[in-house]
Amino acid sequence: MKLEAKLSDLEMRVLLLVRERAAVYSDADFIPISEIATALGANQADVRRAASFLGGFELVGSPRGRGASRLRADYVTTVKGKLNYFGVYLTAVGENYLRTVEAESGFAHITLQAWEQVKGTVMSIAQTALTEIVKATIAAGVQGKLG
Q: How many CB atoms lie within 10 A of CB 97?
């Protein structure tokens, strides 16, 4: 079995949009899912799913748990009593991931506006870089259990 991590077009666009709007790499600068969905012309459920996928690799974070208690109530949604992805912020890991993709692809700075023109070239590089993150995460987890 060959391990490959794959990003969808929407997942990459969410990541690029969050990066463009980020001022810092913390939950102090989150973007509500509703705003992301509107900006991308996508529905909120799909954006929430894309954000949770990206969050699984720590490319974005969601101000949940203790951080969510200080946020405006209109951004907090619950599903079966649990906090849901209501907004996301760019993590340092997400920024570093995009810098790696840019360096490997030869593009100085990939923007959401330029995505349609470069995605054919960049998508395979982005997936290779994400696969490397997954492999490193698995290796670190195995090493931690052996260690």
A: 23
- 84, 75 in Cβ contact below 8 A? no
From residue 48, alpha-carbon distances to 33, 54, 61, 127 in Å are 7, 10, 12, 20
Q: Which residue has the tokens 């470069």?
A: 118
Nearest by Cα to 49 from 84, 74, 91: 84
Secondary structure (DSSP) of the chain: --------HHHHHHHHHHHHH-SSSSGGG-EEHHHHHHHHT--HHHHHHHHHHHHHTTSEE---GGGGGGS-GGG--EETTEE---EEEE-HHHHHHHHHHHHHHT-S---HHHHHHHHHHHHHHHHHHHHHHHHHHHHHHHHHHH-
| Tens digits of residue pLDDT in 14-53 | 999 999 999 888 878 889 999 999 999 999 999 999 998 9
Q: Global pTM? A: 0.81
